[in-house]
Design a protein that fits this description.
Two copies of one chain form a homodimer. With 453 residues, the first copy, chain A, is α+β, with helices and mostly antiparallel strands. Chain A is built from ten helices and 30 strands.
């Protein structure tokens, strides 16, 4: 890969810089999304080889197909880093937000990451795009066009304007000056009522999908105007002191020179079960059966036991260790307040070293199934208020308990009293049952240590 | 309790003998019923104190309310004995069928049990009744009337004829000679079409609810005519050699002297989710939430995680460790062939000593949560092809492993290699995690032993 084409007057870019914004917790797709697994990581799209890919895997694959040399950076919180590496491998760039501070600080940090860490020329352009659009390859071709337009420098921001297919109340609207493919922006409109949306569309308005391109130096300059910082590292370190502010409010509203490029290809926002199931190729993922009297029913089952659906119409059934949703598809968009009320611990999670699943909860115990990927280890850690027992189910590895090393295999049992430091290092994939015992079991009861060896 | 009233000419019986037929596996109420938990043991009826009772508990309570001295014997297979004792206590009589041989052998065995084991005078009458009708107290008053009528000896069999409320295709019909409260039976009709049922009802036909009374000596005589046996014990021992034959075919069809008594009280057969949910006082049992857009929705959730229902109409949602059913209520009656296809191990069960639940299944391991009731013990047993590990979660007790006794409490770990004999005896209620490890884990891999102590 050569970056020498950058900065030349070559009319067609051979590669692009892209920042994918990987957002919040996504309770709208409960029970498959939860506080630590966002919707973009749910594997729902069947591939030709029969396996499933997630939204983030699909988008990443599409980018690499359209532009194999693209520099892809994912701007996200640290809770998602493990899932991103597990799903995309270790070569993807990640700009980790130490905490959530809305889109302007996030975009400023990612921009600084490209300039200061990846050493990309500030004269280059970058495209910022949500991580979860459901789109075809032409969308990514359009992103390249956006970047090329930003390269020209006619405007400081170049937005993608999506041709509306219906008068949606869910999106903001962009009013262009002209009906040409590329136009200056006249004004922006907040999410309207359906009636008002109809008027906007009659005036030639476009949906604002939150996709835009700019030269790196432009946002760096805006960032320095609004935030006192030296470089990426400095910005990263003071990130938690920054004011929450959106990119729209901090930048877009104050910018005169904004262009919009029309995009008329397929574009779906898979934010609700209704829209998500529309994009699924199959009606059943996981163990599920439905009778002939079912119409427009989708089953997404992450549990080990079967789901049977009979005589249902326009219903989505989704089951995971977190819970079970059965919803009329239209109604599923009203899910959030109900899920907010569920006070439940996280029942499963992907970690950098593998995954865990809570399989039993009692008043003074919790039992967990842990899967460590080959070559991976937990942190070396201890707990103040609980004892633990490990029973190895399969695989081989090594445990370290208060400095004492021991190779382990299926059937081996390790007991750890409260306060003792412990870890397990997987040689092959290693599965174990962890029984936690104590009066006040909590995920926050954990002290990490450097390994002494 | 005195039995001296029996055999006198006293017109009103002070107590009755009743045999409850507790039938098969009941896949129609999957996933709450399974191969070893029949529908009559599901706890669905809310009581005044907030707890729930099962069909068998409700019927038993109602019998005792109407006739506190009633001799209740449950005719059932051995797979149900633990559940019956757990739900009804140890004082209930059980006539255990060593294997299933249809209703005539079952009724003959139960009758011999009453005569030979309970030593009840063969001149006394008994009422035979399914264990799972959903009825009010007047039904049990009617059972007493049946027994009194049988006492009179005007007929050899006295049936209950239920006044039909609609032209059902699900029941057989009894055509009485007259419209009087007690009448001789003219003839029986098999389950008809709706149209034919309408004709029967116009002729004064009654539903056959499978309830009848007879003098013990009558069925004993028929049994000896059809089966070569000495007494209860002999019949029990040769039970597996008996031919499968229904009571209708073996007895009723050959009997001329049959009376029927009308019953016009409430009577429901809770055989499907549709009829069962009609009898439920609440719409949600277990963790469940529904939004205002739901109408006529029932949630029965035996899992630890929440069920959320949105915008559904006329739907039953039922979840257990066996699986999840989501069905239109009418459609739920077609469930059986689908459930027959699920090839799944039993995921939870009530045992004489407590209960167990499978919480994780891997290729070469299975993890189970075991709850032992205070004072109870597993069988002393061993496995050929698997090692096991117990981790005690709560409670106190004693383990015996190859004769070695050890008191145990929360946090204790016991390891057992294949072949070693083991049991655990609970002092208080005791919960433990059992990890089974081996290439061919099977419920049939179990040898039982007498304890040597």
């Amino acid at each position: 890969m050569s970056r020498t084409a950058v900065g030349t007057a070559h009319p067609e870019r051979s590669f692009m810089n892209i920042v994918l914004l990987s957002g919040g917790s996504g309770k709208r797709l409960w029970p498959l999304s939860n506080d630590i697994r966002s919707k973009q990581f749910i594997k729902i799209f069947k591939q030709q080889d029969g396996s499933y890919e997630s939204m983030v895997q699909r988008v990443y694959r599409q980018i690499k197909k359209v532009d194999s040399d693209a520099t892809v950076t994912i701007a996200t919180s640290k809770t998602q880093v493990s899932a991103i590496h597990n799903q995309l491998g270790d070569n993807v760039g990640i700009s980790v937000e130490p905490c959530r501070r809305d889109t302007f600080p996030a975009i400023a940090l990612a921009t600084a990451y490209l300039v200061d860490v990846l050493k990309i020329d500030p004269e280059e352009s970058v495209v910022v795009c949500p991580v979860d659009p459901y789109v075809e390859d032409d969308y990514f071709e359009a992103l390249k066009d956006l970047a090329e337009q930003a390269d020209k420098g006619e405007a400081n921001l170049v937005l993608m304007g999506i041709e509306p297919t219906y008068p949606s109340e869910k999106y903001g609207y962009i009013i262009p000056v002209s009906a040409e493919h590329t136009s200056m922006v006249s004004t922006f409109k907040e999410k309207p009522t359906e009636e008002v949306a109809r008027e906007y569309i009659a005036q030639g308005a476009l949906w604002n999908g939150g996709v835009f391109a700019y030269k790196l130096k432009y946002v760096m300059q805006r960032a320095h105007e609004l935030i006192e910082f030296q470089d990426y590292q400095d910005l990263f370190e003071k990130y938690d002191t920054l004011t929450k502010i959106s990119f729209d409010y901090a930048v877009v509203e104050h910018e005169e020179k904004i262009q919009v490029q029309r995009f008329s290809g397929e574009w779906k926002d898979l934010g609700t079960w209704n829209t998500l199931t529309e994009a699924m190729e199959e009606t059943v993922i996981g163990k599920g059966t439905m009778n002939d009297a079912c119409e427009n029913v989708h089953i997404l089952n992450e549990m080990d036991v079967p789901v049977l659906a009979m005589g249902l119409h326009d219903v989505v059934i989704s089951a995971s260790p977190e819970g079970i949703l059965v919803s009329d598809k239209e109604q599923s968009s009203f899910i959030k307040p109900f899920v907010d009320k569920f006070e439940q611990q996280i029942m499963f999670a992907e970690k950098s070293w593998g995954s865990y699943k809570v399989i039993d909860v009692e008043e003074s115990s919790m039992t967990i199934k842990v899967t460590l990927n080959a070559g991976n280890a937990m942190n070396y850690h201890s707990h103040k208020n609980r004892d633990e027992v490990w029973v190895v189910l399969s695989g081989t590895g090594k445990t370290i308990v208060d400095g004492y090393e021991q190779t382990v295999k299926a059937g081996d049992v390790i007991t750890m009293n409260a306060g003792c430091r412990h870890t397990v290092i997987a040689t092959t994939e290693l599965k174990l049952i962890e029984v936690q015992l104590g009066e006040s079991i909590s995920v926050t009861d954990k002290q990490k240590f450097e390994l002494e060896y």
